[in-house]
Amino acid sequence: MSQQLPSVNTCSSTQVKNLESLSLDIARFNAFFGGANAGLMILDCQLRYVYVNQALAEINGLDVADHLGKLVFDVIPQLASLEPLFKDILDTAQPVYDYEISGETPQKPGILGYWSVSYYPLVANGTVLGIGGIIIDISERKRIELALKQSEERYLSLITATSQVIWTADARGNVLDDLSLVSKDYLETPNVQNKETGWLTGVHPHDREQAVQTWMEAVKTKSLYETEFRIKAKDNNYRYFLSRAVPILNEDGSVREWIGTCTDIHDPKQAEDALRENNLLLRSILENTPGLMVVKDHKGRHIAVNLNMANFFNKPIENIIGKDDSELLPPEVASLMMAKDRQIMRTGIAETYEEEVTNGANNGIFLTTKAPWRDADGNVLGVIAVTRDITERKQFEVALAKAKEAAEAASYAKSEFLANMSHELRTPLNGILGYAQILQRSKNLHEDERSKIDVIYQCGSHLLTLINDILDLSKIEAQKVVITPTDFHFPAFLQGVAEMCRIRAELKGIQFQYQIASELPIGVKSDEKRLRQVLVNLLSNAIKFTDVGSVTFTVSYASKEKIRFEVRDTGIGIAQENLQIVFQPFEQASERRRQTEGTGLGLAISQKIIELMGSTIQVQSELGVGSIFWFDVNLPEALEWVKTSQIDDNGQIVGIKDYQPKLLIVDDKWENRSVIANLLSPIGFEMIEATNGEEGLHKVLESQPDIIITDLLMPKLDGYGLIKQLRESEKFPHVKNIPIIVSSASVFEADRHRSFEVGGNDFLPKPIQAIDLFQTLQKHLKLTWIYEEKIIVSQKQDNTEIIVPPATEIENLYNLAMLGNFKGIIRQAALLEQKDKNYIPFAKKIQQLAKEFQDKAILELIQTCK
After folding, report:
1. Cβ contacts of 71 within 8 Å, gap of 6 or more
2. What contacts 390, CB < 8 A, 6 or more positions away?
3. Which residue of 143, 270, 449, 843 could cross-link 832, Cys pair, CB 3.0 to 4.6 Å?
C-alpha cells in the first residue's frame, strides 16, 4: 500500500523536508504494516491524516483515501473529545498508552465498540512532526468481561435474594461455608470446630446419622446428594429442610468442589399434614351437609358429589362421577343447568338464585349457589354448586305474603277509619278551640268569664290530646312518624318541662325535685316536640301514681355521647310480672281507680318514640317502694341554636302596615271559615269565603285574592282539585303564583305531601293555632305587623328602682309564660326574691301579673327586659 504525505502550507520549511524524508520511511514500512491486525495511523501537527493502514480504514468503515489529508474529527466526529489529548501530546511530546475509547462506527451502526489506543509523538531532530497511533479492537474482550461481571453480580444477587441456604464443600466433602447470607437471618450459627462435622451441630440429633451417611455416599459415588432433616432455628425450634448438593467436576472427571442448598420445607410439610386433615374434614362436610353438593369440571362432568346428590339422582355415586347433566336429568332441565354453569365459568362470578328442578320423578324449588372452581393460579377449572330444597319454605312465603296482604288491607282500613275520624273529631274542635282563642283575646271579658273560656279551651285541648294519642300510636305503628331534629335551647327546654310538671305535683302535695348536670350543653339538636312528649308522659305518670313522697327528674351524662333522662318516684310501684305490660297499648298495670285517668297509650307511644331515637325506655320498680324510668339518647350539641330558635313574639298584633291583603278561605265547614275570618278581619284582612272548590274558583275570578287558604275534603270539588286547576288551567293566569295554604284536619304525612305535589305552598293542621297562622301569612305575604303599644318598664316606680335579673332568668320566665304556667312563674319569682333582694321589685310585679293570669302583659314586660 502506497501513500503520499500531503503538502502542508502551515508547516515550516524544515518540517516539510523532514516530512518528505518521513514519506520515504513510510514507503519502506508500508509493506510491513499493511497487513497488521491493529489499526495504524499518522497525524500531522494539524491533526490531519497522513497515513492510515487498511486495518484502521476497516475499523472506521471508510476507504484509505477517505482519510488522507482530512482532519481526524471530520472523518470520525466521535473523536472530537480527544482533541485536548492530541494537543497535549504535540505540546509535551509525551505518549499516551492503552487509552480506552468506545463508540459506534459507520461499519457497525447501533453497535457499541471498544478500542485500546496508544498515541505517541513523531519526533525528528527534537521537533514534533505529528502523532502516531495504534488502535486495537477490544470489543470482544470487553463483552466477555462485561458478561463475566454480570454473571458474578447475578450470582451474588441470587445468593442474597434466595430464601435457601447456600453452602460449599471441598472435593473430600468438608463443608467450607456453613451459612449463606440468608441463613444467618434465621438459623442458629453452629460452633464449627471440625470442618467435616461442624454443620451437624444445627441438625436434629435424630436426623444426624441419616444425613451423614447419605452425604458420605454421595461424596464417594460423586452423585447427587438429596435428603431431608430438621435444623435448629434461632428460636430453638426445629424446622424441616431439604438439602441438595451437586459435584463440580474438573476436565479429568475429578471433583473440584460441591455446591449445595438447604431449602426450608417446614411450612409445606405442615401444609401437607393439614391438607391431609382438611381432605378428611371436607369429605366429612360433603357427606354431612343437608343440602346437595356437586363439583363439575370445565366440560360439565361430575367429579365429586355428596350422598344427598346421589339420592336425588337415585343413583350410586360411582354411576354419577364422569357424567354431565344431560346424562342424568331431563333434557330441558339439563340444558338450563349447563347454560348456567357455562355462564359462571365464563364470568368467574358466583351467583345465588332460585330454580325449579326435577329428576323426572319429583319436582321442587331449590336455592342454588354456584361459584367458579379455581386452581392456585386463579384459572377456572369448573363449577362448585350447593343447593337446598326450599319448596316448603316457598309455600310458607306464599301463605305469608297472602297474610301480609290481608294485614296491610286491614291496616289501610284502620288508617282510613282513623283519618276520617280525625277529620270528623277535629272539625268541631277547630271551632271550639278557635273561638276560645278569639274570646281569650277579647278585652271586654270579666275575669270570671275569661276563666270559663279558659276551661273550655283546656277541655278542648285535653280532648285534642286524647285524639292525638290514638292517632300518634296509629301513625307510629304504620311507620309514618319521622323524627325531625331541630336546634333548641336545652336548659330552657328542661326547665319548661320541669315547671310544667312541678305545679301538678305541688297541687297533689308531693315534692318535685329537678336535678341537672352542670356540664350539659346549652344548645342541642333533637325532635323537641317528641322529646317533650315523652318526658311529660313519664313525669305525669310518676305524679299520677305517687300519693306520698316525691318525684325526681334527673338529667345527666350516661356516657361521653349520650344523655340520660331519669324519672324516679316513691309511688305505688309495679309488680315484676307487669314491668313490660306497661309498654303495651291500652295496658295499665295499676289499680282500677287510677286507670280511668288516661288512655293507656302514653308509655306505648313514648317507648316507640324513643326507639325511633335509637334507644329504649328502661324501668325498675318495687311494689310499695316506687319506680325508676330512664332512657339514654344521643343529643348532638347545637352551637348555633340561637339562629334557629323560634322566639318571634313581639306582642299583640293590631294591624298591617301599608297593606290590606285579600284572603280567600275555602272550607265547607262554617266553623272553620268563621274562626279564620274572626282572627284576621279585625287586623285588616279583606275576607272572602267559599264553601267548596267550585265556588272557590268563581271567587278567585271575581275577587283575585292575594292568598288562599283551603280545606282538602269538600263536596263537588275538593282542595286537591281546586289547587290543581288554579295551577294548571289557563283561566287563572293571574293567580298561578299566588300562595295557597292547605289547612286540614288530616294528620297523615301523605296528605301533606300530596298537597305540596299539586301546588300548595304551606300546610296548617287543624285546629289552627293563631300564632302559626300569623307566622305563615307573614312569611308568604311579606307582612309587617303593627303591634299594640308595649308596656315600658319604668326605671323608677313608686320611688323604687326595678333591677332586671340576668338573661337566663328572663329566658326561664319567658318559657313559662309561653306555656301559660302561672304557678311556675310565681315560684320562679319567689326564687328570684330569695336569690337577690335587688330583684324584689321586679319579682313582685311578675307575681302580681301571674296571679291575675295576665300572660300577655307578662310577655310584654319580659320583652322589654331582653
Report:
1. 46, 47, 48
2. 354, 365, 366, 367
3. 843
What is residue 364's DSSP assignment? E
Show contacts of 220-228: CB within 8 Å, 24+ apart.
222/247, 222/249, 222/255, 223/247, 225/258, 225/260, 228/265
pLDDT in tens, 634-673: 998 877 643 443 334 566 778 888 889 999 999 987 767 8
The backbone region for 454, taken as left when phi is positive above 0, alpha when psi lies in -120 to 50, beta otherwise, is: alpha
Coil vs helix vs strand at 610:
helix
**Cell matching residue 239:** 424446622
Dmax over Cα atoms in the chain, in whole Å? 153
**Total Cβ atoms within 10 A of residue 834:** 10
Q: For residue 669, give the nearest of 426, 355, 495, 389 by alpha carbon.
A: 426
DSSP string, 21-85: HHHHHHHHHHHHHHT-SSEEEEEETTSBEEEE-HHHHHHHTS-GGGTTTSBHHHH-GGGGGGHHH
Q: Give the Cα separation of 429 and 678 in Å (integer).
A: 16
What CA–CA distance (Å, rounded) separates 405 from 402?
5
DSSP characters for 210-279? HHHHHHHHHHHHT--EEEEEEEEBTTS-EEEEEEEEEEEE-TTS-EEEEEEEEEE-HHHHHHHHHHHHHH
| 630 close to 565: Cβ distance less than 8 angstroms | yes
Cis check: omega of the bond before 739, within 30 degrees of 0? no
Pick from 144-148, 404-408, 523-527: least confident: 404-408
**Percentages of the chain per state (helix, strand, coil), in multiples of 5:** 45, 25, 30
Whether residue 582 contacts residue 603, with contact meaning beta carbons closer than 8 Å, is answered with yes
Q: pLDDT (tens digit, 9 = 90+) per residue, 734-765?
A: 777 899 999 886 645 567 778 888 899 999 88
474: Cβ contacts below 8 Å, ≥ 6 apart: 414, 415, 418
The label of the residue with cell 330552657 reads 492
- How far does the chain reach from its first CA to its final CA, in angstroms? 121
Single pTM value for the model? 0.34
Q: Kindly report the number of other CB atoms within 10 A of residue 830's CB atom.
A: 13
SS3 483: coil
pLDDT at 179: 47
| Non-local CB neighbours of 495 within 8 Å, separated by 6+ positions | 514, 812, 815, 816
